[in-house]
Amino acid sequence: MATISRKKARLKRKKRVRRSVRGCSEKPRLSVFRSARHIYAQIIDDETSKTLAAVSSLSPDLKAEMEAGGGNCNGAAVVGKKIAEKALEKGIKKIVFDRNGFLYHGRVKALADAARESGLEF
Questions:
Q1: Does pLDDT of 43 surpass 90?
Q2: Domain 20-117 coded CATH 2.40.50.150
Q3: pTM recorded for the entire structure
């Protein structure tokens, strides 16, 4: 029996989740991707296939707020807060959360909690 790699397992979970998670113009999708050093968040309208807002730990305006980059929960919370601010500027209050196959734990949870505290409704 062959073992399945971590990446393949995540992509399998991603496919399963994306079957039911769709973003529309009233409720776009907040997609989260995390790498070993950084975290990225996008708000996407799947009907028009457009990215409405995007923030990452690599964003130059967030460098001052993060002391150790986006590889920790504090950096993820800063990104979550900033994506919520951008969404509210564009008039987006309700979203659908797409964890992109990652477990809802650690940095993904910190980003989601910060976005909720900043005014987004999941």
A1: yes
A2: no
A3: 0.88
